[in-house]
Amino acid sequence: MVSAAKAVAPPATDPVKPARSSEEFLIFGAPLICEEEEQEILGSLRTGWLGTGPKVAQFEREFRQYKGVLYAVAVNSCTAALHLSMLAAGIGPGDEVITTALTFCATVNTIIHAGATPVLVDVNPETFNIDPEAVAAKITSHTKAIVPVHFAGRPCDMDALVTIARQRGLMIIEDCAHAVETTYKGKQAGTFGSFGCFSFYVTKNMTTGEGGMILTTDERHADRIKILALHGMSKDAWHRFSDEGYKHYYVVECGYKYNMMDIQAAIGIHQLRRIQKNWERRQEIWATYQKEFAGLPLTLPTQPDEGTRHAYHLYTVLIDPKRTNLTRDQFIADMTAENIGVGVHYQSIPVHPYYQERFSWRPEDYPDSLRIGQQTVSLPLSPKLNDRDVADVIRAVRQVLHH
Ligand SMILES: Cc1ncc(COP(=O)(O)O)c(C=O)c1O
After folding, report:
1. From the CB of 174, is ligand 1 less than 6 Å away?
2. Does the beta carbon of 52 sit less than 6 angstroms from any atom of ligand 1?
3. Which of 17, 256, 287, 403 has the most CB atoms less than 10 A away?
C-alpha cells in the first residue's frame, strides 16, 4: 500500500490573495486553491484538452496510488460514483440497501435511482456513524448491500460491518464523501467493500469544484463503471480522449454522462499532492477548537478512536437549548451576524417530506439522528483559515453563548 506521505509534494505556493479582514464574512468550507492549480488549469485551457483527457488519467492513477487500490474511475460527483457503484453491484428493483439516517440526501437518492429501496438505521450518538447492531436488525431476504458513511471523516466500525456483510452475503459500498484521508486499523477507507465513493465537491477535504471517484479492486466492475459513466459506450470509447486519432465507438448499454473533465482533474492533482499538509492544518484547528470550547455549554465531537485516522472533515458541536438557552437555529443566526459562516450536517433523512411520503418514514423512529439533526452545527474547518480566522470563530462562539 502506498503511504499517504508519499503523495505529498513540496509546499505549495500560497495564493497571492489578500487575507480576510475580521469585518469580512468568513465563508464556510472555502477551499484552499493555490498557484499550482491555477497554472495547471491554464495549461489545460492552452492545450485545448478541457474535457476528459490525460489529466483525468493522471489524477485517477495518482489517487489510486494514494489509496493503494487497483482501480479508480473519476466521475463528476460522488452522487454519480454512488449511483454507478449500485448499478455495477447489480442492485435494482426488489433489492433493499441499508444506510444511515444521518447523511446527505445523495446517499439515499442514489439507492432510489438504482431502483432499490433504501432502509435506514439510526446512528451511534457518540460517533454519529451507522450502528452495526441496528444494521443487523434490519437485514431481510431482500437486503443486498450496506452503505456506511464515514461521518465527518471518522471511520465507521468496519470490523463489525464487514463481519455482518460476510455472514449475510451482502455487499459494502462505502460513502467516503468525508473520508479521503480516513483509515481504520491501518486500512484505507474506501477499500473495505466492493466500492469506495469519494466527493471532490468544493467544501470537501480536497476539491475539483465538482467531482468524484470510485475505487474498486475488481477490473470487471471498473470496466462496467467506465462504460456506464460515458453513455454506455464501449470501453474503447475512452481512447477517443487520446491523440491516437479517430476511433469508432459502440453503445453497449444505456449509460449516463458522468465523466470528469481535465479542468477538474487539473485542480484535483494538486489538491491531492497537498492532502497531508491540509489534513495537518485541519487537525490543528480541530485540536484548538477542542481546547478552547472545553468549558462551554456545548457537546463537542468525541476524540478520534484509537487505531483510526480521522479525516477531520467537519467539526460539529451540538447546541442543546436546555444547556444554552438558545436553539440551534438561533445560534446559526447569531454566528452569521458575527460574520461567521456555519453549516448543518445534517437534518436527519426522515424529516424530509419526499421520503416521508414515499416510504412513510417517521423521524422519531430514528431518535439519535433526529436529535443530532436538530442540534448540530458545523464550524469552519478549512485549511484556508489563518490563525486570525480561527480566533474569530472562537470569539464569535463565546460571544453568541455569552461566555
Ligand atoms: C455523505 C455524502 N454523501 C454523498 C455526497 C454527494 O457528493 P457530491 O456532491 O460530490 O455528489 C455528499 C456531499 O455533500 C456527502 O456529504
Report:
1. no
2. no
3. 256
